[in-house]
Design a protein that fits this description.
single chain, alpha/beta, six-stranded mixed β-sheet, 6 strands, globular
């Protein structure tokens, strides 16, 4: 089954408000600071953190996430693992074999690849 843009998170909800960026290495990532500033500006009580995850730890780490988790940004070297963990994938993920975003909703892991576009250049 294919995920669509409509499946991406919309209006914030308190029930799922934790997001993280995963990779290895990850300590250098500015994503937590950037996202925290955006959430503050929007008045959202969301949290965005970072987690160092090795490729061989990915399955166990994602299996251990609680219901508070809304999604994950995935960076090197975990994009193939995110692709494999997704229950649904967007067209670009299918074409590239990689996912850099996982939206966690209702027991599903919706995989997206926002690194590239599936459309042809004009």
């Amino acid at each position: 089954m294919t995920a669509t843009t409509a499946d991406a998170p919309g209006t914030p909800g308190a029930e799922a408000s934790v997001l993280e960026v995963w990779g290895d290495p990850i300590a250098h990532s500015l994503s937590p600071r950037l996202h925290a500033a955006a959430y503050r500006e929007l008045g959202w009580a969301w949290q965005y953190g970072r987690r160092r995850v090795a490729a061989d730890e990915f399955a166990a780490e994602i299996a251990g996430l609680g219901l508070a988790y809304r999604g994950l940004s995935i960076t090197f070297p975990l994009k193939a693992e995110a692709f494999a963990a997704a229950t649904r994938l967007d067209e670009t993920s299918v074409l590239t074999g990689a996912a850099n975003t996982l939206v966690l909703r209702g027991g599903e892991r919706l995989g997206f690849n926002t690194d590239v576009t599936a459309s042809s250049p004009t």
